[in-house]
């Protein structure tokens, strides 16, 4: 059993973060809609959805991640496999996976691992606020965004001074790189933009704001307008404002960003959800985990039958594809990326992280 003082400390930290995020004391319209399933449909509980097999799969996955985390040296806290060894983005996703279990910095079953992730990201936040590993700041805004998202959740729960200072620097870096259309691209400079990188920054900025850091309303409004203009007539979202392909992954990301902006219903949401349902059995293989990471959030926010019908399918698919080591595999980004993403998806019913909260 955990020490009662540890449990009390953990609970107080989480409540403090929820107050910053504006998630206690009142229920938003969107949360009310989700909780009522947009039609008073009774939602299945976390205990109903997260079966014994689900919890065993998550525990194996998180133990695999913990075993892959580097324990010493300059890369202490990072994960070291594939061509993305030491990636701040994969470290950020790993931290989110551990916190989705209920652990917080220094507290809980994977509290040490959360601390290591936060420390690694803090050390690799450069003087401009760009979060990237290496003296040449090698990385991209995807990695920066996932790293900032993790730092925001960890800071909201721990209030560590240095973590907060580096997070503020990272927010300034993101804001300075927003282009006139409201979006972002791969590098931390004003240039063109694409929806995928833009949504990553939207989520990170929202998480930072929820943790008590100032994010100007004008910046948020511009990026949401960018997302809205990226939606096509069939409900899907395209890669750039100039056109380009639409995908399952981009559509999941687009819908989630609209929910994050407080848009909980209307034709944009309805058409986006319908598109995801039509494509749920044929998502892009190359972006399987990335796509389902956003799709499960979209259905979680939609609630009701959307959620009841969606989660069991992806849950069972992930459980059946887990390897004996506890890992999931991805040919492009490696097993640590895939395992972190799978654990986040499977733990969505836990409702532990404010960034995923309704």
Would you mind describing this structure in some detail?
Helices cover 58% and strands 3% of the residues. The protein has 358 residues and is mainly alpha-helical. Strand 1 and strand 2 form a beta hairpin.
Briefly characterize the structure.
The protein is mainly α and 358 residues long. The protein contains 15 helices and 2 strands. A two-stranded antiparallel ribbon has the order 1-2.
| Strand portion | under 5%
Taking strands numbered 1, 2, ... along the chain, how are they ordered across the largest sheet? 1-2
Q: Which blocks of ≥5 consecutive residues have pLDDT under 50?
A: 1-13, 22-39
Summed over residues and divided by their number, the pLDDT gives a mean of 88
Roughly how much helix do the residues carry, as a percent range?
Answer: 55-70%
Q: Specify Rg, calculated over alpha carbons.
A: 19 Å
Instruction: Sum up the overall morphology in one term.
Output: globular
Structural class: mainly alpha
Q: How many helical stretches?
A: 15
Distance between the termini: 30 Å
The assembly state of the depicted protein chains is single chain
Largest sheet, strands/sense/barrel: 2 strands, antiparallel
Strand count = 2
Order of helical and strand elements? HHHHHHHHHHEEHHHHH
């Amino acid at each position: 059993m955990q020490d009662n003082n540890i449990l009390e400390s953990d609970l107080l930290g989480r409540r403090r973060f929820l107050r910053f995020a504006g998630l206690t004391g009142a229920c938003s319209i969107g949360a009310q809609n989700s909780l009522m399933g947009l039609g008073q449909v009774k939602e299945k509980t976390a205990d109903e959805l997260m079966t014994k097999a689900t919890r065993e799969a998550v525990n194996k996955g998180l133990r695999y991640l913990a075993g892959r985390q580097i324990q010493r040296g300059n890369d202490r806290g990072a994960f070291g496999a594939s061509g993305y060894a030491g990636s701040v983005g994969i470290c950020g996703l790993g931290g989110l996976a551990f916190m989705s279990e209920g652990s917080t910095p220094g507290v809980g079953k994977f509290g040490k691992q959360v601390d290591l992730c936060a420390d690694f990201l803090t050390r690799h936040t450069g003087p401009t606020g760009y979060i990237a590993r290496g003296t040449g700041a090698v990385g991209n805004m995807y990695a920066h965004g996932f790293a900032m998202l993790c730092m925001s959740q960890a800071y909201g729960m721990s209030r560590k001074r240095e973590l907060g200072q580096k997070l503020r620097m990272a927010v300034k870096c993101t804001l300075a790189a927003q282009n006139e259309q409201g979006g972002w691209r791969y590098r931390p400079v004003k240039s063109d933009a694409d929806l995928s990188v833009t949504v990553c920054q939207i989520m990170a900025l929202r998480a930072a704001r929820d943790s008590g850091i100032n994010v100007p309303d004008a910046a948020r409004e511009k990026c949401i307008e960018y997302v809205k203009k990226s939606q096509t007539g069939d409900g899907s979202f395209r890669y750039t404002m100039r056109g380009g392909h639409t995908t399952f992954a981009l559509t999941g990301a687009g819908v989630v960003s609209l929910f994050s902006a407080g848009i909980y219903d209307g034709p944009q949401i309805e058409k986006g959800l319908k598109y995801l349902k039509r494509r749920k059995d044929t998502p892009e293989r190359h972006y399987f985990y990335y796509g389902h990471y956003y799709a499960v959030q979209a259905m979680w926010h939609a609630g009701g039958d959307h959620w009841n019908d969606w989660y069991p399918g992806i849950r069972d698919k992930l459980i059946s594809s887990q390897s004996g080591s506890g890992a999931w595999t991805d040919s492009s980004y490696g097993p640590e990326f895939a395992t972190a993403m799978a654990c986040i998806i499977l733990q969505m019913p836990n409702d532990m992280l404010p960034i995923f909260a309704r």
